[in-house]
């Protein structure tokens, strides 16, 4: 089939499913078809095309796309059309992918269910009454429902891996600095990373290969060679040392998740891996540490939405100060305001040492736990999320219980490590369960290898 035919099929599927799923904030049919035509023209001219050429992809709506609305699922950016392109989407366009649309998310990527979107709630394709996870819930749902083949998400504390787990797809957060953040709307800059979603490990590996690499436009970008991850997909993990993070088992872990993850680990053993238990004693401090550092950075990053430079501006203001106040009061949703308030508090004089500085110190200790672990093993495993997908509305009034779903993913961001979620079974309601693989800095190759062997 031609790229245009494949694109038309994807757009048709989107048209059929969107009334129930709501995974896209905008569908970019015209530009998609133009991109597909360009690929077909290349093929007709006998030019060589890459693996991703003509492949329909969804992009989380917090990555800037030139001339195409980028909302972050926020009223404050409802009509924001970026004048520039993010590095990742530019790289994908160069690779010939066909962007079919921008996917839904929790406002500014703050949340774990995609219910914090100012515009719509995305459904989980496995059970429409349940959430797809978040904050990249639109991307995860779109890939699971085959509205597109692959998608990009961003992960600050689990926002790729948690929805991948809830939707039964593969999702990876790369090492901090491997993928350029240029054009990604900042949430918590020291934690944010862009990464791939796919239905298979190979798809995710191909997509990561296309977006990774040094970018002078991102000051935290790593100057490293990007390996060809597909060459490293071997179904062989003999003698690879795998560590089970002890602290992730026990209280609060859904028995169905425990069972599926334990079974998956048994399979890794059968495949020849050496499996041992590993302790990360400071693992449990990840959650409180994250919920100080992330809001602190967010409060600073979101100061730019003041109604002056771009985005929404309140129509009724008497003076500059009331313009700021009313713009932000009307433009931001509840969760975003909560984060800005927490972050402003933890950074303020008199509290800074007690909260922000303390959190930074604990962050170092959490990193050390991982360093110690990787002195003895190659890859760590644990559940991605303690539960399967919950019902929409179930946790919206209880932010703390919502935050708890990030328990097992956020330490990975605090340490800047690569983490991946792969499907490893279902609970008795037929809801997908995810196995999380965690690697040492820039050891994405090992994660792909283990995931591929398991799959
Ligand atoms: N759920 C976490 C939060 O609300 C993580 C979000 C993310 O990774 N973007 O902050």
From TrEMBL:
Cellular compartments per GO CC: glutamyl-tRNA(Gln) amidotransferase complex
An example Gene Ontology biological process: translation
Catalysis performed (reactions): L-glutamyl-tRNA(Gln) + L-glutamine + ATP + H2O = L-glutaminyl-tRNA(Gln) + L-glutamate + ADP + phosphate + H(+)
The protein's name: Glutamyl-tRNA(Gln) amidotransferase subunit A
Example GO molecular function: transferase activity
Keyword Ligase: yes
Enzyme class: ligase
Keywords noted in UniProt: ATP-binding, Ligase, Nucleotide-binding, Protein biosynthesis, Transferase
Function as written in the Swiss-Prot or TrEMBL entry: Allows the formation of correctly charged Gln-tRNA(Gln) through the transamidation of misacylated Glu-tRNA(Gln) in organisms which lack glutaminyl-tRNA synthetase. The reaction takes place in the presence of glutamine and ATP through an activated gamma-phospho-Glu-tRNA(Gln).
Residue positions of the active site: 60, 135, 159
